[in-house]
Design goal:
Length: 499
């Protein structure tokens, strides 16, 4: 037993108690059973006789407590902005198990040189980690990182790059009172105390007398111990440096999540919606309304041009948005993310080259026109295919984190259904084109009615629309329906992702 004297009005003591007695004592409750915990205070009469607890000086847990469990028992009252500073999502979530991520900090009541931290992250299942970092520069490199692992251990890192798996574990200087729980219902929870500053100078240990960014990340452990790159959108950052000696809550930096949403929406609209429509007009709809014009050009040509220019605006804007916010090319240990970035750049590059080629196209009937037609078509199709692959890859990793909060499976199957229906439509169009070509090349069995003296060369048969042309419009309508519905559904899924 250790009982301290009253300091600044606080009476503090520590003691140890046996879980159970070897002999039977009805006044000694076994800690193997859940028990209510009561707290009370009051005055001592004559210095030794306790009086009745003063005023409202009595408190009781809401339910019996398992005193052999080290997990924190959250109170009914949210401590954030009162006794604790907090960084959490969704806003105002409590208790921590109800949050996607939750980090709180408060001064240690027994030692003014310490700050107590609580970290809880929804990591899912398996060998996982949940990490909290303190940073001077809003980046993971050169951050003071504390990682809680699902094997109920805690390690520290000070990575020099974004590859935390290549960083060496560092000594947990200034850390005490570590408690790491196993994963419960997908939540990895830990608590620890950290010194505000070290007695000796250590450039890898940031003083909490200075405002610092708070980072949160989670991911898988390779081999049970080696941290992998944080999964999907499994990284969060405060919007500004935080005073960790204060109890004010911090807000998430939403620039990157919002940029990701804008990038994804613009790419889906540009490639799935507009570019797909423009390609179909150029490939299969040249006979459509062939005797009419739109703004001085054939209907199919201006429809193709309007769609492709609009698509160009969308995917170039998406490209600029994500680079303007990230300020760097994709840097990830996850191959899917890296492949998405590379293939996406190829798609945008081909998408920009193709309209430039069209500006300098040779006139119809010139010897180089067939070469242009082949090159224009090849570059366009390769660009569109690259974009579809990039979207498929994105629907894997972008919604990976969201799979535990929304429906990445639906997003993946939406793009899959879009492509399958698109393939069926292309087959229908090709069969239709072959059928029409064969019928047009067959000699006519009709015999012209001639009067004596008529010249055959003077007899003309007025042109008529091919009786099968109505099928062209029907197939095209089906294609537009596929494009419109799948594009809208994908955009809705993207918008619904929590940030």
């Amino acid at each position: 037993m250790v009982v301290d004297s009253i300091v600044d009005g606080d009476l503090h003591c520590t003691f140890s108690r046996m879980i159970d007695l070897t002999e039977t004592d009805p006044e000694f409750f076994s800690l193997n059973d859940d028990l209510y915990v009561l707290v009370a205070f009051g005055a001592l009469t004559g210095g030794t006789t306790p009086g009745y607890h003063t005023g409202a000086g009595r408190w009781l847990t809401a339910e019996p407590v398992d005193l052999l469990d080290v997990g924190l028992k959250p109170s009914d009252e949210d401590p954030c902005d009162k006794t604790h500073g907090c960084y959490r999502n969704p806003e105002n979530c409590y208790p921590p198990s109800e949050c996607t991520y939750y980090v709180s900090w408060t001064g240690n009541t027994a030692d003014a040189s310490l700050v107590d931290f609580e970290v809880s992250v929804d990591v899912g299942s398996g060998d996982m980690y949940a990490a909290m970092g303190l940073s001077q520069n809003d980046q993971m490199p050169e951050s003071d990182i504390y990682m809680c692992r699902s094997d109920q251990t805690m390690v520290g890192y000070y990575p020099s790059s974004k590859s935390i798996s290549s960083a060496d574990e560092r000594e947990l200087k200034g850390i005490s009172n570590m408690v790491v729980d196993s994963i419960v219902d997908g939540d990895l929870h830990c608590t620890f105390s950290r010194m505000i500053e070290l007695d000796e100078d250590d450039p890898e240990f940031f003083s909490m007398n200075d405002d610092l960014y708070v980072l949160v990340a989670f991911g898988e452990l390779s081999g049970g111990t080696t941290p992998g790159y944080h999964t999907g959108a499994g990284r969060f950052l405060t919007s500004e440096p935080v005073d960790l000696l204060d109890t004010s809550s911090a807000q998430t930096d939403l620039k990157l999540p919002r940029a990701r949403k804008a990038h994804a929406c613009l790419m889906v609209i540009g490639w799935m919606g507009l570019a797909s429509t423009g390609i179909l007009f150029a490939r299969y709809m040249k006979p459509f309304m062939s005797d009419q014009t739109l703004c001085g050009n054939k209907v199919w040509f201006n429809s193709h041009r309007i769609n492709m220019i609009s698509a160009l605006v969308c995917f170039v804007s998406a490209f600029i948005v994500i680079f303007a916010v990230k300020k760097e090319f994709v840097d990830s240990e996850i191959r899917v993310i890296y492949a998405h970035g590379i293939i996406g750049c190829v798609a945008v590059g081909l998408g920009v080259i193709n309209p430039i080629m069209a500006i300098f196209r040779p006139h119809p009937g010139t010897p180089k026109r067939p070469i242009f037609n082949y090159a224009h078509r090849t570059v366009g199709i390769l660009g569109w295919m690259s974009a579809m692959i990039a979207i498929i890859l994105a629907s894997d990793f972008y919604f990976d984190f969201a799979a535990e909060s929304i429906t990445d499976v639906n997003a993946f199957w939406t793009i899959t259904v879009f492509l399958i229906i698109g393939l069926v439509i292309i087959i229908l169009f090709e069969v239709f084109e072959c059928t029409v070509a064969q019928q047009d090349s067959a000699p006519s069995a009709d015999i012209a009615l001639r009067q004596p003296g008529d010249q055959v060369s003077n007899i003309t048969v007025p042109p008529t629309a091919h009786p099968a042309e109505r099928w062209r419009s029907m197939i095209f309508s089906l294609a537009l329906l596929d494009i419109l519905v799948c594009t809208i559904v994908m955009v809705v899924f993207i918008i619904q992702v929590e940030i």
